[in-house]
């Protein structure tokens, strides 16, 4: 493992030779890495390189073909997941408050009433993401950035030890991005482990201490400076040729790699 | 006015019973329809509604025009088609909508032939288009029971059901057993379909579910208000449909659904939210 001071770090998730394949192709190949408590890691890599799959593996939504993941006594409810925005129907008739409150479904179940104490919790989360005034707005009236704030508030209420974010800053304006990064930092300050899938090379370089460069197998993992080297990026690019040569032009990530 | 709209119900008990059946149906079907729309399963509902026909036909072959027998038969064939169709879509290249269409066409054809082996054309018409004016006490009770059960269950599983519709990936990620709630919901859809079929026939049954639900989308912005608006529209269509059916001698099922359809078309143009009149937000 490059560039890690592994002393004093407590692993919360440990991958041992994990491989995953979908119907006829291999999505992840022989992954062996540890994620540490309170760490903030960005996952980068070309499309089809298994970034989202890795998150789904952690959630236990995708069966492993090989290897195992050690969870160190984590329960499913200790992992929060923020899906890509495009997977959600934003015209759905719910209010901001409703969506945020649903973040409590896991810890409190579906059938409890929302009492005063719970309400305070929800209000606090809304305040932290700057949506206090908008609790009763319906979703379709929100901008992409505001909607992402809603999802962050929901994730906050899950009170999880590990938080997985899939492309959280993809459709978001500059201000929102900065606010949300502050929230992410506050999570790591609370010793939560945050793993973020991102496309944005520059952005990762300026905000994330560790990264994982993934192209079906681990190209590099460690401090961002050492991971995002010319050599590693070229390796990722070469790997991705095997499966995505034809899509090179319209692949968002590959635009970063093109200049390499 | 009074003579046209109210008096028929005062004079004829069968019309009153039909109206009560409509109101009960509205309260059961409309909320289910709202969620079908939100889940983007409108077409699936359509397929499902046609697939009750062979079961209904079998019930008819063995018991004659007995609504409970046909209802139970319909329920089983609906469930079987739903299971087979999702099995095929999971195991083969076909997507779910295509496999549903395949099965419902088979079911529809099979059902029509089954009925015609024994019955007269008039019976087939009854089964396809319903006979709300012939709803008797037994079927009224059945409709009312299904509505009560459906409202109760919908209220009970409201949150998980909404979450499963809104964000299934999140539901999965919290281990929320989304497919269990989905299955319960599909069960309710079939039950309500059976209850609506008694009054409106297998071809028209879905109308009571879908038309008020899609109409409500233009009037309301929260789920509870969608429910309410959909129920009101359903009741209104039932009432007006019966009135027209009585005065002009139209078959009751299509009269009700056509009324619902006209209300829908009016709303598409004039509704306060997201209609043609407003610019899309």
Q: What features would you describe in this structure?
A:
By secondary structure, chain A is of the alpha/beta class. Chain A has helices spanning 51-59, 96-102, 105-108, 116-128, 144-157, 174-189, 201-207, 224-227, 230-244, 252-258; strands at 11-21, 26-31, 34-36, 40-44, 66-70, 79-82, 162-166, 193-197, 210-215, 217-223. Chain A is built from ten helices and ten strands. Chain A has a six-stranded mixed sheet with strand order 6-7-8-4-9-10, with helices on both faces. In chain A, strands 1, 2, 3 and 5 form a four-stranded antiparallel sheet that branches. In chain A, helix 4 (116-128) crosses helix 5 and helix 5 runs parallel beside helix 6. The model of chain A has no long low-confidence stretch (mean pLDDT 82). Chain B has 15 helices and no strands. Chain B has helices spanning 2-5, 7-11, 13-38, 42-50, 53-63, 67-91, 96-118, 121-129, 137-156, 158-166, 168-173, 178-200, 205-216, 223-248, 252-270. In chain B, helix 3 (13-38) packs antiparallel against helix 14 (223-248). Chain B is globular. At the A-B interface, strand 6 of A face helix 10 and helix 11 of B.
SSE order and pairing:
The complex is a heterodimer of chains A (260) and B (281).
Chain A: E1 11-21, E2 26-31, E3 34-36, E4 40-44, H1 51-59, E5 66-70, E6 79-82, H2 96-102, H3 105-108, H4 116-128, H5 144-157, E7 162-166, H6 174-189, E8 193-197, H7 201-207, E9 210-215, E10 217-223, H8 224-227, H9 230-244, H10 252-258
Parallel strand pairs in A: 4-8, 4-9, 6-7, 7-8
Antiparallel strand pairs in A: 1-2, 1-3, 1-5, 9-10
Helix pairs in contact in A: 2-5, 4-5, 5-6
Chain B: H1 2-5, H2 7-11, H3 13-38, H4 42-50, H5 53-63, H6 67-91, H7 96-118, H8 121-129, H9 137-156, H10 158-166, H11 168-173, H12 178-200, H13 205-216, H14 223-248, H15 252-270
Helix pairs in contact in B: 3-9, 3-12, 3-13, 3-14, 4-7, 5-6, 5-7, 6-7, 6-12, 9-12, 12-13, 13-14, 13-15, 14-15
């Amino acid at each position: 493992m490059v560039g890690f001071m592994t002393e004093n770090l407590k692993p919360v998730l440990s991958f041992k030779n994990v491989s995953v394949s979908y119907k006829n192709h291999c999505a992840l190949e022989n992954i062996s890495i540890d994620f540490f408590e309170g760490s903030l890691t960005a996952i980068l890599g070309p499309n089809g390189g298994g970034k989202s799959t890795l998150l789904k593996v952690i959630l236990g939504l995708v069966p492993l073909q090989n290897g195992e993941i050690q969870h160190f006594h984590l329960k499913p409810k200790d992992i929060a997941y923020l899906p890509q925005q495009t997977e959600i129907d934003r015209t759905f008739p719910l209010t901001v408050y409703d969506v945020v409150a649903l973040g409590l479904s896991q810890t409190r179940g579906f059938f409890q009433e929302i009492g005063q104490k719970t309400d305070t919790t929800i209000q606090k989360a809304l305040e932290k993401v700057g949506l206090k005034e908008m609790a009763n707005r319906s979703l379709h009236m929100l901008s992409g950035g505001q909607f992402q704030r809603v999802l962050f508030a929901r994730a906050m209420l899950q009170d999880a030890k590990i938080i997985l974010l899939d492309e959280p800053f993809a459709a978001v304006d500059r201000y929102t991005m900065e606010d949300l990064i502050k929230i992410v930092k506050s999570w790591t300050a609370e010793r939560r482990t945050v793993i973020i899938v991102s496309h944005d090379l520059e952005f990762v370089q300026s905000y994330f201490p560790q990264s994982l460069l993934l192209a079906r197998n681990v190209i590099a993992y460690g401090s961002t400076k050492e991971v995002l080297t010319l050599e590693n990026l070229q390796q990722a690019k070469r790997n991705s040729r095997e499966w995505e040569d034809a899509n090179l032009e319209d692949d968002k990530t590959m635009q970063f790699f093109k200049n390499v | 006015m009074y003579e046209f709209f109210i008096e028929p119900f005062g004079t004829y008990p069968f019309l009153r019973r039909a109206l009560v059946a409509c109101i009960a149906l509205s309260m059961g079907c409309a909320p289910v329809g709202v969620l079908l729309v939100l889940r983007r399963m409108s077409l699936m509902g359509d397929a499902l509604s046609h697939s009750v026909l062979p079961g209904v036909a079998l019930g008819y072959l063995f018991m004659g025009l007995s609504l409970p027998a046909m209802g139970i038969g319909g329920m089983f064939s609906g469930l079987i088609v739903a299971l087979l169709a999702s099995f095929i879509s999971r195991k083969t290249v076909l997507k779910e909508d295509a496999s549903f269409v395949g099965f419902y066409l088979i079911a529809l054809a099979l059902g029509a032939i089954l009925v015609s082996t024994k019955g007269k054309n008039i019976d087939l018409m009854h089964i396809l288009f319903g006979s709300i004016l012939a709803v008797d006490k037994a079927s009224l009770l059945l409709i009312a029971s299904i509505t009560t059960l459906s409202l109760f269950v919908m209220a009970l599983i409201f949150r998980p059901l909404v979450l499963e519709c809104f964000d299934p990936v999140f539901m999965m990620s919290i281990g929320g057993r989304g497919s269990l709630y989905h299955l319960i919901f599909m069960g309710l859809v079939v039950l309500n379909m059976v209850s609506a079929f008694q009054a409106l026939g297998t071809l028209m049954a879905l109308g009571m579910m879908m038309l008020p639900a899609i109409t409500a989308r233009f009037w309301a912005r929260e789920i509870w208000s969608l429910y309410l608006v959909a129920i009101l529209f359903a009741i209104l269509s039932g009432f007006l449909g019966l009135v027209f059916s009585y005065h002009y001698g139209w078959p009751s099922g299509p009269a009700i659904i056509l009324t619902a359809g006209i209300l829908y078309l009016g709303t598409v143009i004039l509704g306060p939210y997201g209609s043609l009149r407003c610019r899309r937000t």
